[in-house]
Fold this protein.
Amino acid sequence: MNKSAILAAMLILASSSAYAYENSYAGYSVKDGQPYYKLEAKKVYAYTNISSKKAYQDEEDLKHTAVNIVNYYTAEDMEQILGEKFSTAYFDAESEKLALLERSQLNPKTVPAPLLELDKYAEHDSNGNLTIQSKVLKEKLEKLTPLIKTGKIAGKKAITISYLYKQGDVLVKIDTSLVSANDRLYLLSTVNTDQDLYAPKKDEKDADIDDIDIDEESDENDEAKTEPKSAASAKGKMEKALEVENVFVRDVPAETMQRFDKAHTDLLKGFKAFAPTSTPKAISFTDAAAGKSVQLPDDWFYGQLNLKYKDKGTFYLTLASSMKEMQEVAANTDYDSIYSVLAIPQADPEYQKKVTELYSSGARNVLEHWNHLLITASVDNITDAEIKELLSTPVANRLAVESFISDGLQRMKGFSNEYFALKDYKTNFDFTQEKALIGINADTDLLKDFAYNNKILLSCNQKAATAMLFIKKTDAETEKALEQQLNEWHF
């Protein structure tokens, strides 16, 4: 083989793996194309089909963003879900059975189809997974009639369950394809939306305004001020706004359906299964502007926004925390109390009191179950003259910044109430002509009963700036390896 052929082959191999997410322990990779938003946890990876380069350069592209989600399950996971042994051979056999029933308009609610009982997957979410069919959408999807298809998509044997529905003025399509390899099951989901098809037309909005009787509206408002609505009424109105309605493919423009189908097909085309390794994949994120990577604890997740502004650099925003803690907050949220407060007219003397109580109880629920929160933000390609000035006279600017921050913290320490109190703090300032670092370590009390330690690091150099906030309960255990990495989050 000559040198040109070798070079061409190397370029093909390089391009085939460019911008791809890989989980060797899960046994798969997927071409994500540098998404502008992504979320990763132990057994789930989600990302947008719009790249960070296009997100804020073409509003029309952003308008048609789809979200792709990949979940994976081991044979042991599937045995817990199905109640019987699972393997790729089992999947193939079930797929053949479903293919025979497909012409009868298969409905998993009426025909036994263990693999399609997606509510069982949602029950398994506590084991490091988070599916599209979990609590948020479960009740909605149960009211809809799914479309089941078997066969090959992008050359892969797949069982696909699809929902097409309207919620408010938005058309939604959810496609979930089940694919198996190496005795593992993969759920490949795509969520598409269209906000144009059912959007009220401008003349319809104007007509609605013209039809309003001002006197009648005033009377209704007066009644609302004097006659409080019931919690059930408020709950009913909210639920009505969130109602879902089946939509038929024939009622949707062909180009819209083609866009929806292409998004899901692209997901399957970019998905590749291979023999899994024996070493679990560590959950970690990288902030290229800061030049830092952080490896997270096993049960954590992170979500990262990555925006490339044309000729203005890249902005990264990352949030990370414990998946288990987040799920506990959701599970213990008192939604009935929220409905009760929403039912109270704002003119009612009890309104503000009830809102305060709801805020307090809601915040208390979050604080009881959520022990850690990490937020990082960075931007590169800095051209701000003020940053240049900050670094040009480091001694003078350090004194000015230190005085300003210390004075503010001292004032905050003197101010405390039942919601927030700054108990103590330490600061660190390091300014040179190459970089500037501001470090703050503060102990706070929230709602009197919850003590937190807060670490803040702000730093910049001639090219980039970054900020890090790490909040943790004082009595919560935190992996030392994580704390060490966060202590080094600066230039």
Remarks:
- The longest helix spans residues 394-414.
- Residues 27 and 140 are 32 Å apart (CA to CA).
- The two ends are 47 Å apart (CA to CA).
